[in-house]
Amino acid sequence: MSISSDEVNFLVYRYLQESGFSHSAFTFGIESHISQSNINGALVPPAALISIIQKGLQYVEAEVSINEDGTLFDGRPIESLSLIDAVMPDVVQTRQQAYRDKMAQQQAAASAPASATGGSITGNAKNGENTANGEENGAHALANNHADLMEVDGDVEIPQNKAMVLRGHESEVFICAWNPVSDLLASGSGDSTARIWNLSENSTSSSTQLVLRHCIREGGQDVPSNKDVTSLDWNSEGTLLATGSYDGFARIWTKDGNLASTLGQHKGPIFALKWNKKGNFILSAGVDKTTIIWDAHTGEAKQQFPFHS
């Protein structure tokens, strides 16, 4: 078994993205040089870090619950561990000893004289009265303070027949944007594609989609970049879609899915881009600590602002 720091960093970076910690992911991606990694993000499944941690936790639980000869410790599995418990030093010996102490106390209590048991029942009955009284008083106190409780919205369940699942991406989806004019939805994913979904009522299929493959030029051929599509935005007329990718390029697409222009001047991944209201300029921001204003018609970089931190 081998583990590299690049692999660990990539899984942590993906976890931050999937959990919505976009700023933390941005900073961590810069400091750990994720953009220079050779890992194909399209092949890494969602929740990969959580999955491998759960498997490790199950292994520790097996260590605690199973003897070296393969039999269950004291004939039964020990209670589940929390993640923090699992990383404590000598967790196997500590939990097994705690279990032995607990069983010894239970056996001692079971072998106590019957008279002592009777006395404890009487005491418990008295305590039970106090407990009941306490619960009653607690109920009154809760009722008196009911007006001070904060109202919390309950869960809202959406019927299955009211939801539409758009299937097609082969990795997690990072961002979506509605077309301001048409019933089109654009999505960007870790499978190095953006997709345009036609959700109009007269569409021939409920999941009609155009696949916008983000490729780079290598050896005179276009090959998949294998980098995340992290940002996208429609122009105000809804005719053009701009996308930003972890390969460092911004791209402009028509709403029919055709590549209109490739904008390449950033020296690292692009994490944000935005059209202006007139639809003639695009502003992009990258991990190279610069923002660039692009002419949307010519694809030329009109102005670049460095030294953003």
TrEMBL record:
Pfam family, one: WD40
Protein origin, superkingdom: Eukaryota
Spans of repeat WD: 166-207, 229-253, 263-304
InterPro entries found in the cross-reference section: Ebi-like, LisH, WD40/YVTN_repeat-like_dom_sf, WD40_PAC1, WD40_repeat_CS, WD40_repeat_dom_sf, WD40_rpt
Ranges annotated as biased composition (Low complexity): 104-136
Any one Gene Ontology cellular component term annotated for this protein: histone deacetylase complex
Molecular function per GO: transcription corepressor activity
Keywords: Nucleus, Repeat, WD repeat
Chief place of localization: nucleus
BP terms from Gene Ontology: regulation of transcription by RNA polymerase II
Presence of keyword Ubl conjugation: no
Record region (Disordered): 103-137
Signal sequence segment: none
PANTHER family membership: F-BOX-LIKE_WD REPEAT-CONTAINING PROTEIN TBL1XR1, WD40 REPEAT PROTEIN
Family label: Belongs to the WD repeat EBI family.
Protein name, UniProt field: F-box-like/WD repeat-containing protein TBL1XR1
Organism: Lates japonicus
